[in-house]
Amino acid sequence: MPLYHNEDQLMLKDSVGPFIAEQAPVAHLRQLRDSDDATGFSRDLWAQFVEMGLPGMLVPEAHGGLGMGHIEAGIVLEEIGRNLTPSPFLSTSVGAVAALAKAGGTQAERWLPAIAAGEAIVALAIDEGSKHRPDRIATTATRAGNGFRLDGKKSFVLHGHVADMSIVAAKTDGGITLFAVPKDAKGVTADPRRLVDSSLASHVTLDGVEVDADAVIGEVDAGGEILDALLAAARTGAAAEMVGVGQGAMDMTVGYLKERKQFGRLIGEFQALQHRAAHLYGEMEVARAAVMKAQELLDQGNEGAKLMVSVAKAKAGRAANLAVREGVQMHGGSGMTDEYDIGLYMKRDRALAEYMGDVHYHTEQVARMSGY
Amino acid sequence: MSDLDAFRAEVRAWLEENCPPEMREPVRGDEDICWGGRNWKFQSEAQKLWLERCVAKGYTVPDWPKPYGGAGLSAAETKILKQEMARIGARSPLNSFGIWMLGPALLQFGTEEQKVDYLNPIARGEIRWCQGYSEPGSGSDLVSLQTYGEDKGDHWVVNGQKIWTSYADKADWIFCLVRTDKTNKYQGITFMLFDMATPGVTTKPIKLISGNSPFCETFFDDVKVPKTQYVGEINRGWDVAKYLLGHEREMISGGDSAGELVSLGGALAGVLGRNEAGQLDDPILRAQLAAFDVDAFAYRAMGERFIDMWKTGRAHPASSNMMKYVGTELNKVRHELVMACGGSEALEWDSPETKGGARPRAWLRTKANSIEGGTSEILLNVVAKRILDLPGA
């Protein structure tokens, strides 16, 4: 397959791009932020996503979805990134769907059609400390009665306080097991915190939470592979969203260079700025290609996907970070004001950089997977 | 089975049958690379056989049309051929500036007669070409070039000097930018072709900091060039040159992404050594290698995407400038890391144990990557103006 969007994918981009730019531009984020919105996203906007079939893009057709792939989901995420649109799309429609589709069984049948129909928001309760360490999960699931008892603390759970279900990764006797924990489960407390990018992420406490045996996603002790599928999808999705954030910041900055005058000239005439902008363009293009390659390999079920996913998350992280840093600097004093949007891009980038493993985590993974 | 799957199966079978085992060994050095030409001495029977078989199939220039020595493959088929060659580690049958640079220019600007006459010998590896662009006073500001061709009716008499002419001392013919109108800077240059054996052409190798001499100074002293031997239009050679620089940048950027993924950190583990946990001995160097590998793997995906888009006309025409900039800067970092991992052994300049100082010479050679074919600074200028549309001079 050639590494560019085909006709169908370009059509998707042509319909999703303008839709998000019109319905959920940066002003939409500002409006939610300034009204101290308690949900973390707009349910009205999500209803429009549902009308377009977006929540079920990755859901297999047998479960009522569109059966599309990561390249298509990436198109949506890039537009979400470019417009800083608050939405549960990444956790619900990408991360959760990847896990449920991989696992199959009761929980897949219960939740995949609901996600596709826009009736369920799903949160991913994976992280525990302030850094992403999915290989050190301490939350426990012990057998109790007909099911399990969950105890532990989760952090950085986006949409955790409003999700209809949370996928909880916990330690069982022989490995990792994933559980579908419904919203009303007794013993679950979600404490939402406002983050730097105005999103809401919860600290979730699981205190003797009792779930039935059929709450297990996939098989007991065999959650590792399902977790891997979830992580690969969410990381690739976050990388695609970062490409959108970086591209949005870069476009805005290049635009500013063409309108701001100093010394009687457009500042974009100065070679010092031209070279930095051109360098940034190169980094963004390389990041975009890396993300697309990871999406392609994931869609193919290629065994090389895992390495490329880490490459994509690390490279997109570095490129988008460069884009927002250069963006704020090249906007000068304006870049420091809340009035200009560029600072919002810096904040969103910071949150996405941390989500599902930062640049350093994934660079380390690349070294490990490469055998050194 | 789709047509492409069938093609892949056919290519795979052909390669299995026809690529000699020696030609599936990794390239160890310059001597393993086949450049062809009148004076070429094949390094082995296998090298000769591999070239002949590829020539017969059109596989030295798979995407050129058949009448010009190619196989007439589509972009998708060419990609499959490259993937299948990479899969078995097949060496390139023929390296050639004729293939990478002159060929694309002739395909775009040449007459039918020129295409038939010049492209076929290039495809067969019979004529080795060199490129006469830079002059001592015209590097980044190439258009200021002074080598002059005086109009003598049916021929030009060319006088002047070129510099950084790659392998001029080994080439059979040269494609050369020559001023034919001193009153018009951009529209006063003609893209000429002539035989390096023409009386008045001399070459002198330039010794570089690597100790090697891949480049020459090339002198023209009353060289007679028939007025049929030019590409495009007289005085419009700059158009050809600009088009061709795009291909040169494409080539230098090394858009080859079909082979196996090899990490630099993994490749250097044997040199640097490992600690008890099996990780590279020096944690800071390991981190730098890992950061490099992220960049290199990502750039490889970029190479694949760039070629896919370039070959199908989807790429921005100036994007090869970005590719060359990123690729050459990355290659310099690679060789800094190779040297750092090699320690004092990598300083040895001529010991047999280090293959005659292969590492420091290669390291020094890479410093030219971001100078030749457009300096990084010029490339950034081009990207800023042509892609980002930034204002100014």
UniProtKB/TrEMBL annotation, chain A:
Keyword set includes NADP: no
SUPFAM superfamilies: Acyl-CoA dehydrogenase C-terminal domain-like, Acyl-CoA dehydrogenase NM domain-like
Keywords: FAD, Flavoprotein, Oxidoreductase
Domain Acyl-CoA oxidase/dehydrogenase middle, first and last residues per copy: 136-194
Every Acyl-CoA dehydrogenase/oxidase C-terminal domain range: 226-368
Pfam families linked: Acyl-CoA_dh_1, Acyl-CoA_dh_M, Acyl-CoA_dh_N
The Acyl-CoA dehydrogenase/oxidase N-terminal domain, residue ranges: 6-119
Cofactor: FAD
Flavoprotein keyword on record: yes
Coiled coil: none
Entry similarity comment: Belongs to the acyl-CoA dehydrogenase family.
Name by which UniProt lists this protein: Acyl-CoA dehydrogenase family protein
Organism listed in the record: Sphingopyxis soli
UniProtKB/TrEMBL annotation, chain B:
Keyword Oxidoreductase part of the UniProt annotation: yes
Entries under InterPro entries matching the protein: Acyl-CoA_Oxase/DH_mid-dom, Acyl-CoA_Oxase/DH_mid-dom_sf, AcylCo_DH-like_C, AcylCo_DH/oxidase_C, AcylCoA_DH/ox_N, AcylCoA_DH/ox_N_sf, AcylCoA_DH/oxidase_NM_dom_sf, Mycobact_Acyl-CoA_DH
Keyword list, A-Z: FAD, Flavoprotein, Oxidoreductase
Domain Acyl-CoA oxidase/dehydrogenase middle intervals: 130-223
Acyl-CoA dehydrogenase/oxidase C-terminal domain span: 235-388
Cofactors named for this entry: FAD
Entry-linked SUPFAM superfamilies: Acyl-CoA dehydrogenase C-terminal domain-like (SSF47203), Acyl-CoA dehydrogenase NM domain-like (SSF56645)
Domain Acyl-CoA dehydrogenase/oxidase N-terminal: 4-126
Family: Belongs to the acyl-CoA dehydrogenase family.
Family matches, as PANTHER family: ACYL-COA DEHYDROGENASE, ACYL-COA DEHYDROGENASE FADE29
Protein name (Swiss-Prot/TrEMBL): Acyl-CoA dehydrogenase family protein
